[in-house]
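User:
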Amino acid sequence: MSAMLQQTLQTLMAHRLRSLLAVIAIVWGIVSVLVLVALGEGFYQVNTKSFAVLMSDTQSVYPEMTSKPWQGLPARRMVTITEAEMRQLEHQPAIKGLAVVYENWEATVTDTQGRSLPGYVRGVDGRFVTWRKFKLTKGSRNITPSDIKNHNRVVVVGWQLANIAGLSLGGQVKVNAVPFTVIGITEQSEGGFRMDNDEQQVMMPSPTFTDLWQKNPSMLLVDPAEGISGVVLRKSLISFFAKQQHFDPTDSRAMYLPDFSQSAKFFTALFRGIQLFLGISGAMTLAVGALGVANIMFLSVTERTREIGIRLAIGATPTSILLQFITEGGLLVIAGTGIGLMLSCAIVTLMAVIGMPDWLGIPQITFDAVMMALSVTGVLALMAAYFPAKRASRLTPVIALNARA
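Assistant: Predicted structure:
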C-alpha cells in the first residue's frame, strides 16, 4: 500500500499543472458550497429572529368597531374596554397572563432643550417588553413592579429615538413637558421585520401613563395557559369580550385578533428554501469541479495507456490499476477539500469582521453544512475517479502496448 501511495505521489508531482488544476476545481466547489450556505444560514437566523414575535404563543387583541347590531344595540359601535375589564381575563382558565398596553401617538416628545423628537408613547408593564422580545442594551433595566406601584417617571426608549436625541442611560427625555429618566434603551433589531415603529417608542409604566392621559387601553397581549392552542385561545377571547361588551360573537370586526402563525410558518419555509437554493447552487459548482477532476483523470488514462499496458504485461492486476487511479483521484480531492475548508472559514470570518448588511445577518458555517459539503464531495469524487480508473483497469495489454506504436 505504501509503495502504491509513493508511486501515486510521484505521478502527481510529475504532472504538477494537471494536478493543480484538479485541486483548484475542487477548492472552488467547496468554497462555493460553504460560503453560499453560510450566507443562507446567516440570512435565515437573522430573519427568523425578527419574526420571533410572530412565532410566539402570545396573542394580540385590539378593540375595534362592531359591524352588526346585537340585542337592540346598533352596529358601528366603538368597542372600548377599560383596564379593569381586561384584567377580568386573568380569572379565565385558558389564560396564563396578560399585559395591558396604552398608546398615545399624539404625545409631544422632546429632549431637555425642547427639540421635538419623532416618538410616540406607550404605557406598559415589564411583561410587555419581555413578550415582545425586546432586547435591552447593557446597563439597561426593564420596568419593574416598583415602578408600576409608585408611578415612577421612568422610560425605556427605542434605539432609533435614542440615537436621534443622543439619549443615554440616566439621561432625560420630556413627554408633554414632563421630564422622565431613561432607564433602558432597546437594542437595534436584526432583519427587516418591524412592528408598530417600535424603534421610536417611549415606554413608561402604565399608571404613569394614565396620570397624564385619561385613555382606555389600545391593545392587550395575552399569554395562553399550557396546552391551549391559538385557535382555542382566540375563540375564548371572542366569547369573553362578546359577553362583556355586548356584541355579536360572530362579528369579526368588533375585535381584531391577528393570527400570525401561518405567516410565520410561510416565511420560515421561505427562508429555508432560499438557504436550500444557495446550497444547491454551490453543490452544482462543486459538481462542475468534480467533472473537471474526471476529465483530468480520463486524460491521465489516455496519456498513460502504454504505461498501463506495460504494467499489465509484467503481472499487474486490473484491481491494482483500478486502486492506483482511484488513489490518485482521491488524493486530489482530499487536498482540494482541505484547502477549500480552510479558505471557506477564512472568507466567512472575513465577512463577519468586515460586516454584512443587517438584513443578511452574520454568515455561519454550521456542522451540517460541512457534512453536506463532504458528503457531496465524497460521492462526486468517487464517481470522478472510479470511471476513469475502471476504464484503465479494463485495457487489454496488447492494445495498450500498441497505443502509441
